[in-house]
Structure formats: C-alpha cells, structure tokens
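Design request, tokens follow.
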C-alpha cells in the first residue's frame, strides 16, 4: 500500500507558504498617515459652561487600507475669556481657565462619502469620514469631567477637499462633531481644522 504522507506533507507545506505569504503582504502594507491642525472656537452657549472657548491643537489619523479602518487622535488646548463688570464676555481677556484634551477613535470603519458632514463656506467636493464612540476623552490627562466612565460620547471626523485634478488638494479640510456627553463641553457644532500633509492624497483612491 502506498503512503499518503508525502502528498499530505506537500499540502500542509503549500498551506503554510500561502499563509506566511499573506501575512507578510499584510505586514508590509504600512498604515497611510494624515495629520494636521485644529483652530476654532465654541460659540457662547447656555449648554456649555464657561463658553465661548478658543480651541487649538493637532490631530493625526492612521488609515489601514486592508481593513478599511482608521485610528484617530486629537490633542487640544482650550481656554475661555474673562468678563466685563457687566458680566459680558471680554475678548481682550483671553486664556482664562486653560486646559488640555486628548481625544481618540480606535479601529473605526471608514465611510467613503461625505453624507452628513458639515458644509464649508467654500464647498469641499469629496472626502471620507469616521463615526463612532470615542475610546478616550480626557481633561488635563484624566477622564473628562463631562465624560462617562467608560466613555460614551460619539465623534464624527470628516476629511474632505477638492477634486482629484491639478492644482487641487483632495485631503485638505477636517471637521470634528461631538455627540453625547462631550457636547456639554465642546458644543454640538463642527470644530474645524486643516490637513497639514497633503502629500498623502492617494488615500482612498484604491477603495
């Protein structure tokens, strides 16, 4: 009787080579990276204690094309304004109650459209977005006083820009919109920023 061992061994070896090759391919595809700045303010809102606030910071996003997912983080400073004797906001007295925030979205599925994204005065023409529950929302390093434990606030991040033509930047703008408990501090309006590294404009073209 002939042994089937060589045939079985060959099949196992082929399977191992296929798996190892697939893993090497996946490991060889580095995340695509975007980063930029945030500069905006919250309007004076009855629902946001201490508003209006100035907001400044930086953000970054690592996109994993093979999984159609991304990780996002924003590092921000915020400060409010002083008040006049009559109690009105005084823009000549900035930088009152300065503090910091770190915001994260982890392993969020990418939506390759701008449906529901906030409009810009000069319209953006294409883009993609992340939308989900934050994995981190700090105030001065600790879980934010406005946030639940664990966090339940949501965040929509839209990356948008111009047409994919000469003299245009396809990934140029960013907006952040909070939902849930975080709106008590950041407000429900869009927070605006800019993409600092337009060299990554190939992101999303092969989707």
């Amino acid at each position: 009787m002939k042994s089937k061992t060589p045939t079985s061994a060959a099949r196992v070896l082929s399977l191992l080579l296929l798996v190892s090759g697939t893993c090497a391919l996946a490991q060889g595809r580095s995340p695509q990276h975007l980063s930029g700045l945030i500069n905006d303010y919250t309007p004076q809102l009855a629902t946001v204690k201490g508003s209006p606030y100035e907001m400044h910071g930086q953000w970054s996003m690592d996109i994993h094309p093979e999984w159609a997912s991304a990780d996002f983080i924003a590092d921000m400073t915020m400060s409010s304004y002083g008040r006049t004797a009559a109690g009105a906001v005084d823009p000549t007295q900035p930088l009152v109650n300065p503090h910091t925030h770190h915001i994260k979205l982890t392993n969020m599925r990418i939506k390759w459209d701008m449906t529901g994204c906030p409009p810009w005065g000069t319209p953006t023409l294409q883009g993609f977005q992340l939308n989900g529950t934050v994995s981190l929302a700090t105030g001065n390093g600790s879980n934010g006083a406005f946030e639940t434990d664990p966090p339940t606030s949501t965040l929509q991040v839209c990356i948008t820009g111009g047409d994919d033509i000469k003299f245009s930047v396809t990934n140029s703008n960013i907006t952040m919109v909070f939902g849930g408990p975080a709106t008590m501090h950041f407000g429900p309006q869009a927070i605006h920023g800019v993409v600092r590294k337009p060299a990554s404009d190939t992101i999303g073209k092969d989707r």
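Comment from the thread starter after seeing the answer: thanks! The chain has two domains: 1-30, 31-200.
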